[in-house]
Amino acid sequence: MAQDQNLFDEIDELFHPRSVAVVGVPRGMKAGKLFLLALLDQKFPGPIYPVQPHAEEIDGFKAYPNVSSIPGPVDLAIVLVPHHLALSAVRDCAEKKVKGVILFTAGFSELGTEEGRALEGEIVRIAKAAGMRLIGPNCMGFYAPRSGLAFFPELPREPGNVGLISHSGSLANIFCHVAAKKGLRFSKAVSLGNECDLKSADFLFYLGDDPET
User: Fold this and answer.
1) DSSP secondary-structure letter at 39?
2) How do strand 57-58 and strand 61-62 relate by DSSP bridges?
3) I need a labelling partner for 90 at 20 to 30 A (CA). Which of 21, 50, 126, 189 fits?
4) What is the pLDDT of residues 154-167, one digit of tens each?
5) What is the residue extent of each domain of the chain?
6) Are 48 and 149 in contact (CB under 8 A)?
7) How far apart are the C-alpha atoms of 50 and 41, rounded to whole Å?
8) How far is CA 158 from CA 52, 143, 145, 183, 211, in A?
9) Distant-in-sequence, close-in-space partners of 146: CB < 8 Å, separation ≥ 6
10) β-bridge mates for residue 102, sequence order
């Protein structure tokens, strides 16, 4: 069906981005810095754009004040900002026509509050209006060694043919590290968090037809 093919193609594009923006990457050695370090460790082949309005340069990369100011196209954005800034960050990505956003930020529907649910709903509305797909929030995102993507440094760069879908980012990371010690390699792994847009079932469908898995 055309709808199934469209879903497969959308997810496949997210797993094979030509460029990545890391939005809200900290200047110091804080947790969010791990996403930038993971891309470098995996030798991501395309442009990497740190977005940090309070810095001109991060780890040798020119830093941009927002996604809209990045000169080239951005296929994937990893958003690390505090939850009260998440709405403006997602809106900025939508205006830039980013194809997909991994929203690491927590503080949404998982809190069980009306405010958290409302904020998550507004983020989904903005993304849908722009035709932009969301992973998360409250997630770690992708590990795809063939594409140079990872949610943590020091994961194997050698790909395998096993796919992994996880709600928890911490457990996905632990599982990938433990599996590596046993000689098991992954084609792709994903931590989905709240699944406000793309769901576990979507990735199960995708991995079932993925020639790399």
Assistant:
1) H
2) antiparallel
3) 189
4) 999 999 999 999 99
5) 2-207
6) no
7) 16
8) 31, 12, 6, 11, 16
9) 159, 187, 212
10) 78, 135
3-class DSSP assignment, residue 160: coil
Task: Kindly state the tokens that stand for 189.
Answer: 């792994």
For residue 26, name the pLDDT band (cuts at 50, 70, 90). Answer: confident
**Closest among 123, 159, 121, 122 to 142, alpha carbons compared:** 159
The token pair that represents 98 in the structure block: 């980013």
Determine the distance from the C-alpha atom of residue 193 to the mean position of all C-alpha atoms in its chain, rounded to a whole number: 11
Give 102: exposed, middle or buried? Use CB within 10 Å, 0-12, 13-18, 19+.
buried
Query: Terminus-to-terminus CA distance in the chain, angstroms?
Result: 21
- Let me know: does 213 contact 207? Beta carbons within 8 Å: yes
Nearest to 22 by CA among 46, 2, 52, 43: 52
Give this prediction's pTM. Answer: 0.95
**Residue 29 pLDDT exceeds 70:** no
Give me the pLDDT at residue 72, please.
92
pLDDT greater than 80 at residue 183: yes
Q: So what CATH class is 2-207?
A: alpha beta
